[in-house]
Design a protein that fits this description.
By secondary structure, the chain is α/β, with parallel strands linked by helices. The chain is built from 12 helices and 16 strands. Belongs to the peptidase S66 family.
Length: 346
């Protein structure tokens, strides 16, 4: 039987959402961007952003105190005044939270959690606790976007966190990787340059498939692999794998090696489909090489007909979708469809 997940209550305008620094404490170094994120979340989504007790205590304190980061998550879950949870940023340190996390609190106080990148660790603990979660923008990234939130991001967050029905997914009309210095307050209202999008690409696949969404950032999944926080085999079975890479720009061969590990674990063999994000920092030659690695690994795993959709707008790209992990989705290569059948909230 496929796994089932509790769907937390949908967020509504006027709800209070806790800002959590579960990995990096960099938010304390860019107070102007933090305030922009709070202001834009209020204007576009109606959310009141409230920092968790330790969220703004800075990088040094949070690095030395993973228990404090876990305490913030537990505080937000148990606090009846908090309706949702939002990561301030990613990082590279969430794996150190594992000994301190209480999955029972996640299970008994289900709330909508949103984040990406290193927050992959925490989002997968929600799935392990039997609770859906959302792979979407953090407070300091697309929510605090220079000059205001992108319409595509607003729509994606509303669909995934505030809408109980399923919804169709479609490519963003434009995208950017332009770096805009966060430390300079004068640049906060200077919009970045966006380029026209070429859309999504089907690498392979025959026939429509459906399954629950699971996945995250591959570099973070590599850190999590083999720890007590790694999702149990039944959580991968029948899933649509949603995989992305970070600004570290791992070589295509490294992505292939990670996928070989997934094949060896049986994850690829039992998957219903795969969705790959637009890889940040890749040249056209690297994209072509990556495509070859994905097809080669899947062929070796006996999955040469597995539906694979690539270049999708989630993860380390802007603007980004919000994907309901644990939610049911459908891929149809022939019809060119990627849709959510049942989302992450109720």
């Amino acid at each position: 039987m496929p796994p089932t997940f509790v769907r937390p209550p949908a967020l509504r305008p006027g709800d209070t959402v806790a800002a959590l620094s579960l990995s990096s404490g960099f938010v304390a170094e860019v107070p102007h961007r933090y305030e922009a994120g709070r202001r834009q979340a209020r204007a576009e989504l109606g959310w009141h952003i409230l920092p968790a007790p330790n969220a703004l205590r800075g990088s040094e304190y949070l690095y030395r105190n993973p228990q404090a980061r876990a305490d913030d998550l537990h505080w937000a879950l148990e606090n009846p005044e908090i309706h949702g949870l939002l990561s301030t940023l990613g990082g590279d340190d969430s794996v150190r939270l594992l000994p301190h996390l209480d999955l029972n609190l996640i299970r008994t106080h289900p709330k909508c959690m949103v984040g990406f990148s290193d927050t992959t660790v925490t989002l997968l603990q929600f799935l392990r606790a039997g609770v859906s979660a959302c792979y979407g923008p953090s407070l300091l990234t697309d929510i605090a976007e220079h000059g205001g939130m992108h319409r595509f991001v607003v729509q994606g967050l509303r669909q995934a966190t505030m809408q109980t029905a399923g919804f169709a997914l479609s490519p963003a009309p434009e995208w950017t990787e332009q770096h805009q210095e966060w430390l300079d307050p004068d640049l906060q209202e200077v919009r970045r340059t966006f380029l026209p999008s070429r859309g999504w690409r089907w690498l392979q696949g025959e026939g429509a498939v459906s399954g629950h969404l699971i996945g995250g950032c591959l570099e973070v999944l590599d850190m999590l692999n083999g720890t007590p926080g790694w999702p149990e085999p039944e959580l991968w079975r029948g899933a649509i794998l949603c995989l992305e890479t970070s600004e570290d720009v791992p070589p295509p061969a490294q992505v292939g090696y990670w996928l070989r590990n997934f094949a060896a674990q049986g994850i690829l063999g039992s998957a219903a489909g795969m969705v790959l994000a637009r890889p940040r920092g890749y040249s056209s030659e690297m994209v072509e090489e990556l495509d070859g690695w994905v097809r080669r690994v899947l062929w070796a795993a006996g999955r040469e007909h597995l539906p694979v959709l690539a270049n999708v707008d989630f993860g380390h790209t802007s603007p980004q979708l919000t994907l309901p992990l644990g939610g049911q989705a459908r891929l149809d290569p022939e019809a060119g469809v990627f849709e959510v059948l049942q989302g992450a909230v109720s």
